[in-house]
Amino acid sequence: MMETAKREKPTGRLIRLPGFTPGRQKGRFYRNSLIIILLIASIPGLITGIVMYQLVVGRMENEFNRMHQNQIENRARNVDDQLAYLEMTLSHWAFEPRFGNVLRTLDFVYYFNETQEIVTTLYVLEGSHPLIKSAQLYLQEPKPILFNREYNELKDDAKIQAYDRYLSMGNHVYWTDWVSSISSEPTGSTENSLLHTDASNALVLVHKIPGENNNPFGALIITLDNEKVASLLKTLTPYDEGLTFLMDQEKNTLVTGNPGGSQQNAAFEQQLKKEVALHEDSTSFLFKYEDQTYSVSYGSLSRIDSEWTYVSAAPLTSVTSPVKLVSKIIVIASAGSLLLGLMLSWLASRRIYSPVARMLHLLTPGKHEAQTHPKLDEFQLLEQQWNELTSQSITAHRQLQEQLPHLRDSFVLQLVQGHLYAYNEQDLQKRMKNLGFEVEGQQFLLLQMYFTGYARLQGRFGSQDTGLVTFAAVNIIEEVAESYFGQISVMNFHDLSSAMLVIAPKDEQLKPQALLWGEELVEVIGRTLKMNVTIMISRPADSLHELPGIFVEMEQAVAYRSIEEGSQILDLEDEQCFRRAEEAAYPLGLERELIQAIRLGKPEEAERVMDLFMSEVTWTGSTEFQVQQMMLQLLGSVQHMMLQTGVTPYKLFGGCNMYERLSAIREPAQMKQWMMAEVLQPYVQEIEMRSQEPLKQIVERTMLYMDEHYRSEISLEGCADAEQMTPYALSKAFKQVSGMNFIDYLTKVRMEAAKQLLRETTMKINDIAAAVGYQHSYFNRIFKKQEGITPSQYRDLWFGK
Fold first, then answer.
1. How far is CA 553 from CA 56, 127, 493, 517, in A?
2. Do 47 and 142 reside in the same domain of the chain?
3. Fewest Cβ atoms closer than 10 Å to its Cβ: which of 107, 231, 476, 525?
4. Do the domain assignments include residue 385?
């Protein structure tokens, strides 16, 4: 019986069929068959090799050249996008209220906080793009002032005239390659700033301020890093050889991708300019120079005030070098195929007498199948084996169908994220059909879900379990959506957010269904996961190509949603859902308290003030964008304080871009946790590590002495004598450790004590002045300088509350 028969392993021997003897018929038929097979195998190979070499190689050269041109165009668009982003970024900052008409009359020395904010803003602007080398603000009124990384009053007429030139040049926003200052780094003194005016090829972007005023009194000046711009421009020539440069409307070279080139390159560049002028009717041409043929591509870059032209010249041999390799490969492959065909033909001729036996040998598991099944002939055995293979194929197909949902979701994710932009609408619909979607005569609706309240789940889930929570939420979304929509595809972003594509007939009203589904989903998520959901509903789309753009709109719009507690259902087409609330005032006082607590190494006090800060910035009606901008401003202030106290943020944070990491957080509670855990605690730990240093101990003793004896006469010399130091050494150590000057700290201590007496007692102003170590007239003057109002006004204002 078949069930009990032992199957032997195949040994590679042929099954001998009845009436078949392999060794008998090797005469004329064998020789004729061998000759025919050799001819059949060799002639097509020779013809194919010749045709491929003659036709394919020529076409490949044209195709490689075309691909090279497309590559240059794509890279040129990238350069254009980089410059356009710089223009947009500078325009954004130029229209900021802080750069408005208020700067005409602002006393920058008196209002040092506003001055520090401008310097910090320029520091942030300088770090916002890798091409920016320096960012400066020049004010002509109320007096010539230059901001770079510090506040500088210009006294030298030559310097003033050089910066005034920016106000007289160009339109309101313009590009220039005229550089007024080759050093934008602070040197500690305005007199030490090095001014240099020349016509170098560094690019400068200028935006006069105010941004909305036709009578500017200042300018925001961005100077680009010439080496980085040259490196970016060098990408237009993707080979080691060649030349690329950028020129303006007057055919003057702005930047070259080969800085410091030889005289030969300069001559080549001049010749290229002449050839470009002769080929204005095309965007690419071939140019022969010194026995070398170059593929030249050029095009225009429309800038905000002019029209630039890029020129890229690459040796044609570099462009078509893969064709030479392909030619050799074709020749080698053709020869190899011919030899292989001859050898296989010889082997096939020896086996041509036993096709059925060979088939049985390949398809049956043993060599004695015919003896095991005597009632079955060879074809019946082949049929039986074919049925088994068919069964296995059906099983494999079923497994493929099980994996199909994952393939569908993966394809839809790539579609909405814009990774399939190269496909046209017909190709996309065809691929959707292959994945089991019905897309003809259908409309498409995108829904995006953001899950908030994760900070409340820290008892149930850890900080690294966001992917697990998102996975559970996606399963709930699929279950709830099955009863509302016919065709869906849910995308899991693994970061407490997901999206869903709904496909329905065009005559169906999708928005009402989506709203009902959203209400049920909010209830189920809240009951099951104890989290809130923000659901954003897009406008219906008639084509698949519209989905990436809609997805980008939704990603941008979510930043303007309200951060109020609870779930939200937002309609992308309803502007009321994204109206900008009045911006809350930045809590500058709480920022100062927070920085002071951090500087003194008081983490508990810092956390308390941080809670108050978050309460201020997350007032009712605030948007995610507003909260994020205030947190970014706080991060900048904290990092500035770190620099003042001698701690380098770059080393402290391991080289991480903390602005980028903060921008990726959407929920205010998580922003606060991140700020405490990733920014403030490492700094406090670093300060504590330094607390054992003798210098810090000396400064702390001095500060403690000032806190306790501020009522009496205190001098830098007296404190230095007490610590057996020179006044200069103590002043330098005090500034390095505390971030403040000796006299500034003493003034701060006395002012705080005076304000406390004004608030909590009815003492006379003269008595309060004496109690904090000041004479009456000097006390009034210093109090108004520090607080902006007189002591009497402060007391009236406090009790008026």
1. 45, 26, 17, 22
2. no
3. 107
4. no
